[in-house]
Amino acid sequence: MRASLGVLGLALGSVSALLGIVVLAWGLRRNDARFLRMGRRYAFVLLSASALSVFAMEWALITHDFSIRYVAENNARATPLLFTITGLWAALEGSILLWGLVLAGYLAWMAYRFRNRATDPMVAWAMIVGFVVALFFFALMLGPANPFQTLANPPADGRGPNPLLQNHPLMAFHPPMLYLGYVGMTVPFAFAVAALVTGRLGEGWLAETRRATLVAWGFLTVGIILGAWWSYEVLGWGGYWAWDPVENASLLPWLTATAFIHSVIVQERRGMLRVWNLSLIVATFCLTILGTFITRSGVIDSVHSFTESPIGGWLLGFLAVVTIGSVLLIAWRGDRLRAPGRIDSPVSREAAFLVNNLLFAALAVVVLLGTVYPLLAEALQDRRVSVGEPYFDRMTTPIGIALLFLMAAAPALPWRATSGEVLRRRLLVPAWFGVAVMVLAAVAGIRDLWVLVTFGLAAFAVGGIVRQFALGLRAQRATGTSWWAAPWRTVRGGPRLYGGLIVHLGVVAIAVALAASSNLSTKTETRLEIGQSTEVSGYTFTYVRRDVVMTEQKRSVKAQVRIQQGDRDLGTYAPAVSIFPGGMSGIGTPSVRTGILRDIYLTLISAPTDRDRVTIGIAINPMVVWLWIGGALMALGTALALVPKSRRIVGPTSPAPTADSVPPATDAPDAVATVAP
Amino acid sequence: MSDERDPAGQTATWRSWAPWVVIAVVVIAVIAWAAQPRGVPTPAERARALAAQLRCPDCESLSAADAQTSSARAIRRDLRERVAEGQSDATIRQAYVERYGEAIVLEPERRGLGLLVWGLPVAVLGAGALGLALAFRRWRGLERRHATPDDEAIVREARRDGPTP
């Protein structure tokens, strides 16, 4: 029943995507507005259909319908409700179901957003591209990755989700956020292809997808940060990023998308970099497909490859079609893509964006090579090799430092050209601030070169950001705004500028956290008996007692450890090891005392024995919390950048020209419709 | 912008540069101080550095320094012993490669295909930087032209949505 309902939804989805393609193509060919208007409506049918199949799956999960194979493999009667619901994305087939729903949601949003321009060939082509992508994923689900496969002999109880996936509530948020980001990149990709096909290669498609790209980018950012947080809170090795292939797979599209949202500003402003921007968005989309391939085909063994399945070939084929098709399209339109622009000076905002793009591209190359090299070595030379943290750290740290410097200095650069004098004046106070922080950090006893440089550049960047805000506030106050209304009105006057600066502030926080936690953390292991204490970095750790907690879901053994600093009691923390029914080995759960300057990270290395002995791992991780704060700031800044610009408010003044003072990029009638809020 | 022959202008230029000279000196001093080698690493530091370069055999991406599995702990213990015995870093690494195969090392080797992984990003950066430098040179060489009304019309047309077929 539930399986039939699910399959019905999938079939309906496939048919509506197919009909959407056919009807729109027919309308374009015949130039018939009725067909074009009808075609877009299939997006809403698609959304309903995928909602139906997701509903069927959730229903089956919640009612523990083990006649469906996916439920039997990813759910058990003892699974708590939260992890029963999140069971939808606990394995490949369910994840694609969610993928389909998110894609259908974005397509329906596109159909709604451009409802008044349904007859515009650009919009029609973008919808067709979206439908093609949807058709691929729905066909995948009807074929090799069918989530609704039934079992002839349903087991009495299911296997339950992978223990790691039912250990922390973050599992409810990390994958959906990541998918919202991944799949959202389909929207700018669809418009880029539409621009190529229709030959309208100006700035129109950029303006139309700016918001969608930002939304997708914001979700991707949050998804990655939440993944790191989950890793930190669940996996128990004390870190948050292992350069695991699957983590890299989520980082890759983020890198190219980040390059894209910077370089489109140059195209909006100067009409340059057309091929480059098209390539970046195509690359971003391809990397999301590659990411899915890496994550879900089991091709690279990794902690995330919970499943292996035959869909690898399908994904790889789709990836090849998309890549080759896009390259051919760009080559075909090559003559129209040449932009007659020039950049006047290497010391200008647009030049800084070029360097930014070069650095992000280099980062993407590093991450891509490091991720696929083991595959290449195995395929070409039949050798097993590993690439891990030492390689990635060595390669990414210098590029990251260069990017941090650029992020600090570039927002002060004017467009076109500048005199050194202006630049020196604008950067002086931020530079003093950076130097002061660097010296203070050295005086405070930090001797690590990378940490000192990062701290100095971070302060330099913060100085620049504060300076820009101060200028904006002063201009706003000068118009007679009260001091308490000024900040919001300042942001409303230039949402892209100030939203972007807040995102940068988040990046600064993350850079500081990365540098401090990866270079200044300490880690020890101690064996303790009940009542015994040990001292690490000025903290006293006492093993108080052993607790055993039995639930239907799992059996946990906890070691209660009291932490004291001098005479001050910091509370009792309980790292645990849990045994799940059906699980082979125990799953450790760390216990973290989060602090603004340092986390105390406790793990159980060996479960407490009956003789009341335990081995605990104690790590002091400085400033990790700033990763999560930085992620929140990035999300906030992205949200602010989406706020419509208020035309009644004075914008940022001329000393700091902004992306928002761009003259309207187009004056075609279609652009007017999209600019209107 | 100051006129070179104007003493007052020179003073102004010097004034705007002076703080930057101070900043540069301080930054270089701090970096030089931090980059100084800090004596011989202790045996524990050496063992840890080695562990960070080796993969934990029963994990996927973690190093033996980070992982908490029993094999990672065994490797850490073994590394401490080997360091205490006075084996050199190269000997220890070689011993591990012989025992576990080259997949135990977390870095690509610096020859053959591995050279690509190390070299390509650098090559991309270099080529990109060179390309940018050439582009700026070319742009600089172009005479700066002022737009005629005709040009502006063309730009408007181009910006609308690219040329129409």
Description:
The complex is a heterodimer of chains A (677) and B (165). By secondary structure, chain A is an alpha+beta fold. Among the domains of chain A are: 1-160, no CATH class; 408-519 and 628-659 and 670-675, no CATH class; 522-625, Tick-borne Encephalitis virus Glycoprotein, domain 1, CATH 2.60.98. Chain A contains 21 helices and ten strands. In chain A, a hairpin with a 2-residue loop joins strand 4 (555-565) and strand 5 (568-573). Chain A starts with a helix and ends with a helix. Chain B has six helices and no strands. In chain B, helix 2 packs across helix 3. Among the domains of chain B are: 43-104, Helicase, Ruva Protein, domain 3; 113-161. Chain B is mainly alpha-helical and 165 residues long. At the A-B interface, helix 14, helix 15, helix 16 and helix 17 of A face helix 1, helix 5 and helix 6 of B.
* Overall average pLDDT of chain B: 83
Helix content range of the residues of chain A, please? Answer: 55-70%
Which chains have the largest interface? A-B, 79 and 63 residues
Rg value of chain B:
29 Å
The CATH C-level class name of the domain at 43-104 in chain B: Mainly Alpha
Report the sheet-strand fraction of chain A.
5-15%
- List unreliable stretches of 5+ residues of chain B: 1-5
Give the mean pLDDT of chain A: 88
Largest sheet of chain B: none
Number of strands of chain A: 10
- Overall outline of chain B: elongated
Q: What is the string of SSEs of chain B from the N terminus onward?
A: HHHHHH
Taking the alpha carbons of the first and last residues of chain B, their distance comes to 48 Å
- Looking at CATH, the homologous superfamily of the domain at 43-104 in chain B is Cytochrome C biogenesis protein
